[in-house]
Amino acid sequence: MEQDLILRDEDVHKLNVVLTRLIDKGRIDCSMVINKSGRLMTSQSESSEFDKTSLAALVAGSFASTISIANLVGENAFQAMVHQGRKKSTYVAQIDESTILTHIYTSRTTFDRVKTVTKEFIPELQSLLSLLYAKMNSDPNVNLDVGHGKRAVPDHQH
Question: Does any domain span residue 154?
Fold first, then answer.
């Protein structure tokens, strides 16, 4: 089941610590955690200057369309996809059923390095997100049912 998170500052900080380590180890320019609905949850970058919010939405749409491609070739889904450019490339990997990890990288690293480091960090991100989902589900102050006249707690997402 796909879930959405309301991230508090401390949650974003925990994710950013992992992303910063991943960026350093993989020599990645930018790393973003994106909800499959297209919402940028958080990002860390060394030098990338671009519209991350728009990129998050486009990546989520692109990743969703690969499900149809996977089905046509006999797979349920693809776990990752890559777009290679002359100067910059992207690597997109599924963290869990609700979340996507996207990297922008340049020639200062290799596709193999990005792929290997991403696989190394995915379990840590899965564990962290699982804890955040569990915390959200057990918090009586969080109300996502705004359509029924109940007051929702303001979200602190980034």
Answer: no
CATH number for the domain harbouring residue 86? 3.30.450.30
What pLDDT, on a 0 to 100 scale, did the predictor assign at position 93? Answer: 95
Q: Are 70 and 77 in contact (CB under 8 A)?
A: yes
What mean pLDDT comes out for the span 100-111?
95
What's the full length of the chain, in residues?
Answer: 158
Q: Output 108-114 pairs: Cβ under 8 A, ≥24 positions apart.
A: 108/27, 108/29, 109/26, 109/27, 109/28, 111/82, 111/84, 113/26, 113/27, 114/26, 114/28
Highest mean pLDDT among 1-15, 61-75, 89-103: 89-103
Calpha distance 121→93 (Å, rounded): 11
- Give how many domains the chain has, as a whole number: 1
pLDDT per position as a tens digit, 35-53: 989 999 999 997 767 899 9
* Burial class of residue 54 (count of CB atoms within 10 Å of its CB; 0-12, 13-18, 19+): exposed
Q: Name the amino acid, one letter, at 27.
A: R
Q: Taking the model in full, what pTM does it have?
A: 0.80
